[in-house]
Amino acid sequence: MGNPVTENPLETRSDVQRAVRQLVAPLEAHHSPGGALVRVGAAGASFPNHEAGIEGYARSLWGLATLAAGGGEFDGWERYRAGLVNGTDPDHPEYWGTIADGRQKVVEGSCLGMALGLVPERLWEPLDEAERERVQTWLTAANGEWIPDNNWRFFRVLANVGLSSVGASFDRQQVATDLDRLETFALENGWYADGPDAPVDYYCAWTMHVEGLLYAWLAEDDAERAARFRRRAVEFASEYRHLFEPSGRAVPYGRSLTYRFAQAAFWGALALVGRDADLPWGEIRGLWLRNLRWWFDQPIFAADGTLTVGYRYPSQKMTERYNSPSSPYWAFRAFLPLIADADHPFWTAEERPLPELDRQRPIEAADLLVRRGPDHVVAFTGDTATPRYRNKYDKFAYSSHFGFGVDDGIAGLDACGIDSTLVVSTDGEHFRGRTADLDGSVDDGVAASTWDPFDDVTVRTKVLPVGPWHVRIHQLEAARAIETAEGGFALPTTEERYADDVRETTEGQMAAVSFEDFSGLRAVGGGNRCEPAVTTPVPNTNVQHPRTAVPVLSRSFEPGSYRFASAVLGVPGTASPTAWTEPPTVEWTWSGVTVGDGEGETVQTVSLEQK
């Protein structure tokens, strides 16, 4: 069972057009009688189930509207058109309700605006005057209302611009106000923050840039702003690509990861920059297609072919409160290049692999330090500002292969998201990890942070990549007795070898797990005695792998000042621990910490003071 898209080669434009139809086909069984709602599951979100049905209807339009705009065939437009008419009719049983309450419907209004702008002949022109007036009334009801001061402003922009595209009444001043505010979120090198004092993550790619480029495509009287959106997108491309493996797999980092192949949406949206743009079209097309292929090769589909909630596999444990069963269809914005004609260079250029990229690259706007291997990308974090999303921004490292685990909300080391972080406890049962309220930075090849797990406990950490390893240097100030536990990368295990039969080695001050891949960490540079162990986190808490094992070093401290360090190694595709025989060295000096490569060469001297 599943979805036939898994057999689609995804090589040509017609392959991708067929992929849209393959992904939409399973939704037919989930349409409401009036067509206004698409419900693909019964799980709840922070908004009513009725609004989840609107999500299913509206988000699928990202695939269908782009398909039709580029000349692709779909025989279900009558049902979608009926859904639009019925959903905006207050007298119909499937009426969506007013959009003016600042809730989830504001988001879905952007999908409708996009579709009106791209395929008016399918959704607008067949309507009579009364039906058009109701659609216009529904979409403009959010104007002047409160909405979150972040990427949501683009949603209101697209709703208005869609109406403008079909000659309907809209609020021009509201559009200008929202766009002006969005531009204040722009950072260097084409990046955007998702609002004031907000994190910088994939929303920059799959919302800020995607919707900015779509606005530039649809807007006919805002050439100067459209040019800025296009210029920023081109600048952003040179850094965004560092988060992707040659295989197409990307680093999972941050929230909303259930949107999955929305990761590819930016690469597809670049087709809207313009056919004459001086871009490496073959490289861009390759990044886009390889990401889609990787995703369609993962177990992300239910038995009936619909998308599940989760990341690489179905799991509710890694989701956010605003994720309904219909939410994953936000990924359909990845199909934007279907708008472009077949003779666009996006389609005519030969697909090319990623070029040789820098082994190490700071992404200053996002406070990330990216380290690349042949088949493994790791992003080390500096500063974050995301208190709601523990584990999704505040780990030391985020790996394209090993993924990351989340807190399961229960007591115990196996439930606190121990991988790639340091946690602190006063009772050995309840652990506090790095908070999202960090004072951090990425500078000179070092990711630094200061955090307070308790009012009288402060931890300063500096993370330094050294070859395939990374070294974590910790300075601890504690006015109470505490225990710490530090985890390496979460190694995937199979069902048969999940708990009792995982091969592990523990010796002195090191812990390692080896099974198809290798993960280990060891104490370096002297310091406090530690206890090595391997823990098996609660199943389904890792975004990449249902079952994992994590090597851990535990330490105990009386009140006082301490410094200690660990060297961490994660190697995909090798079950041999021999790669671990020459760890980095750490020597404490008056000037700071001198880190060597394990072969006698000094890599860097790192000050213990925070800048």
TrEMBL record:
A Pfam short name: DUF2264_C
Keyword Nuclease appears in the UniProt entry: no
The entry's keywords: Plasmid
Record domain DUF2264: where: 12-353, 390-580
Stated name of the protein: DUF2264 domain-containing protein
Organism ancestry: Archaea, Methanobacteriati, Methanobacteriota, Stenosarchaea group, Halobacteria
